[in-house]
Amino acid sequence: MISPRARDWLLACAFLLATAAAYAPGLGGDFQFDDASNLETLGDFGPIDDTLSLLYYATSGTADPTGRPISTLSFLLDADDWPDNPQGFRTTNLLLHLLNAVLLMLAIGRLEVAVRSRQGTHLNSGPSTVAVLAGALWVAHPLLVSTTLYIVQRHAMLPLTFGLLGMLALDAGVRRIQRGDGWAGATWALAGSGIATLLAGLSKPNGFLLPLLLLATLSIAYAAPRNGPGSLLAFRIVRAGLAIPSAAILLALAWLFAGAVGAGDQLPRPWSMLDRTLSQPRAIVVYLSGLVAPREGTAGLYADDFVVSTGVFEPWTTLPAILAVAALVVLAWRSRARCPRVSLALGFYLIAHLMESFAIALEPFFEHRNYLPSALLFWPLAAWITNGRAMPRARIAMAVALPLLLLLLTLQRAMLWGKPEELAAVWAARNAGSLRSQLMAAHQEFAAGSPSAAIDRLEEALEQFPHSIEAAATLIGFECTDGHVPASAVDYVERAFAESPAWHQGIFDWTRRAVMAYGKNQCQGFGAPELTRLIAAARSNHQIALTETRRQRLTFLQGLLALEAENGQAALDQFDAAIGFGFDHQQGLMQVASLGEYGHPRLALQHLHTLQMLPAATQGAAPRSMQGFHRHLLQETRFFEREYSHLEHLLQRELETTQLSPGTETEEDL
Predict the structure, then answer these.
(1) Fewer Cβ neighbours under 10 Å: the N or C end of the chain?
(2) Burial classification of residue 488, based on how many CB atoms lie within 10 Å of its CB (0-12 exposed, 13-18 middle, 19 or more buried)
(3) pLDDT one-digit tens code per residue, 249-278
(4) pTM for the model
């Protein structure tokens, strides 16, 4: 006869297969939102076929100071070049989601044993029954679809993977301590949690909260050993070993928060850090409502229409949300002895939100921030369903119906993710105030052969968001496809360039492509004169003056525009001037290559030699971030020297070819 534990795990396997089937319709579709900007580095350094190219890629992340190298490396499981098929990436995400469910079931099973041991209770169901149901409720939850199928949010998934491994290592260590093997247990617990924290944090910085999460787990779920002073000392060492990094993390978060508040208007956001902090209780309440009472659909990836609180009564829901979150904190604290499952589930959820939802100046709202925090949230419900004696049939029905209902909602959302056009239309209708959802819908309409509908949508969006460079630039691109850009569209872009509070690399990339595509006036109404106006408008924007990097890139764009006008010397002057704003090897290579591509090999060589003569002082100080380490690595391995040498060889050959071809010399070459 099959044992209850074996039965539970057979049911778990069956449900995980059903979950995979529910997600299957969403594995196709398109790349979304930030996917491209995070994955395109797969092709930046050529084939990743040796240790050096692997290191170049692993350190190329720019999402935050850590660079998230573990998450970055994980994408090599799916591709080693860009672009690629999104299905492979999403399949890996789904497999990771299922793996996390298995680890979660194991972890909750161990926590259930610890809690029962601490309380001295013997319940109807085995720990594995509680664990499997809790894991099933979590893995099937539809709110996690927008994390699992959003490729780049593997960044949000991996911290949970390593966090659960750290939790299992902590449990294994504490059990050894409780058996009398104190020092081995303490070593196992601290080493395991330390390694897990490092891996989780290098996947995404919220993984560095793991010591604090494990400290809460140890304090609430586990009883201090009673088998001698040695074991008790080892247990206290483990607790201290978690408390010290936890205190350091809290101090670091306080320092980051104070720095963000002090930055004031310099934040590249349309809100202050204090406004964002006031908004987060409302975000937490919305998250929890979606977790506790899942609905047919949500905002998905695009929640840029989330209203930021500017005071405790603006909007009026701010104060009630603050009070609600405060009540949850009190409940988590007060219930730790009588209801440890509730205490730990709520404490885990709130602690895991400390970084992304409170301390750092990120955008106010994203569903994927719940992936790690929600892990233990369904444990108390699963324990109540499986261990209650009243209404046994009703409880059995709940144990069956709830996971299946969640699975049906997940299937519904996954099917939508697999249909990009329908997905864009639904999100645009559901999030009428979201600029990003309107842009996504416009792109899908244009791709589907409805340019007039796409243009109408963008014009309506620009009435609502007059400072949006993305919307204005997209409108220009759509209008140019028909060969003519009305003056009103150019006015939209010029106003956005002059007044937009948000500037990022994507805007410069679009302008560079626009110069190369339209600089010779191939598009009626949008050519070199209009592009010159845009660059002048950008120079008048006070956001450009905040960093030398932005001024450098604008100067490069002016040089590129001069190349389009066939004025190589003017372009060289602009490129030389760009160096004065802070030298960047990548930018320098682009400038040299641009001169060569536009038929000025002699000027390109001249600029290249100027770059090579720059003093070593431009190498900078010791790296303080992954981006700094990446630059240091490129420098120490002579990456740019090799690139310069290769480019010089190509330019010399081009120059020789030009000089040997009769009738091709330009005035510059002569």
Answers:
(1) N
(2) exposed
(3) 999 999 988 888 877 656 667 788 899 999
(4) 0.91
